[in-house]
């Protein structure tokens, strides 16, 4: 769930299970009265929700889906800007909210983490578990540095840093 910068629009990803089938939707509602502004069917539910970002001076909603896809939707009407399919099936389930810093979007999954370009959804870098980051065990919201490096806290580790040309663990 995310709230627009002006506090007027609430964004959510919902899913329902029943009768042997599941349905999932992304939607935008008025924060004032709860009226539906737009909705969009999704091919899979989002277990972690979405993150708002700004792309080309317009708000976008980034959704991590349980089928390993990262979607970028227009916040104004729900239209799809791009999608990125995470590597490493079947371990491509996304376990973290998308973290955005400038033009870099980072998401985590059991097989590692991936950074993509906010404008295009193209992969910038990928880090596997061998980098000592089990993303589904991150205990606090990770942050992204100026150079695209991800900093995260895990159990039994003070902090981890990894990204292009940078990796360290503080125990």
Morphology call: globular
Number of helices: 0
Tally of DSSP β-strands = 16
Strand order of the largest sheet: 1-2-3-4
Overall radius of gyration: 16 Å
**Largest sheet composition:** 4 strands, antiparallel
Helix content: under 10%
Task: Kindly estimate the percentage of residues that lie in beta strands according to DSSP.
Answer: over 45%
Q: What class would the helix/strand composition place it in?
A: mainly beta
> For the terminal residues, how far apart are their CA atoms?
33 Å
H/E topology pattern: EEEEEEEEEEEEEEEE
Low-confidence stretches: 130-140
- Mean pLDDT rating: 76
Outline the structure in words.
By secondary structure, this protein is mainly β. The chain has no helices and 16 strands. The strands form four sheets. It has a four-stranded antiparallel beta sheet with strand order 1-2-3-4, with no helix packed on it. Strands 5-6-7-8 form a four-stranded antiparallel beta sheet, with no helix packed on it. The termini are far apart. About 6% of the residues have low confidence.
């Amino acid at each position: 769930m995310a709230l627009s910068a002006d506090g007027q629009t609430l964004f959510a990803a919902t899913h329902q299970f029943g009768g042997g089938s599941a349905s999932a939707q992304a939607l935008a509602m008025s924060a004032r009265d709860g009226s539906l502004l737009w909705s969009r069917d999704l091919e899979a539910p989002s277990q972690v929700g979405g993150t708002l970002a700004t792309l080309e001076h317009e708000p976008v909603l980034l959704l991590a889906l349980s089928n390993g896809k990262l979607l970028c939707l227009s916040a104004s009407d729900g239209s799809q800007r791009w999608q990125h399919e995470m590597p490493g099936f079947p371990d491509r389930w996304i376990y973290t909210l998308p973290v955005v810093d400038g033009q870099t979007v980072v998401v985590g999954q059991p097989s590692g983490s991936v950074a993509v370009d906010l404008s295009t959804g193209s992969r910038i870098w990928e880090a596997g578990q061998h980098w000592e980051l089990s993303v589904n065990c991150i205990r606090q919201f990770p942050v992204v540095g100026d150079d695209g490096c991800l900093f995260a806290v895990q159990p039994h580790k003070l902090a981890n840093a990894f990204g292009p040309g940078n990796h360290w663990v503080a125990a």
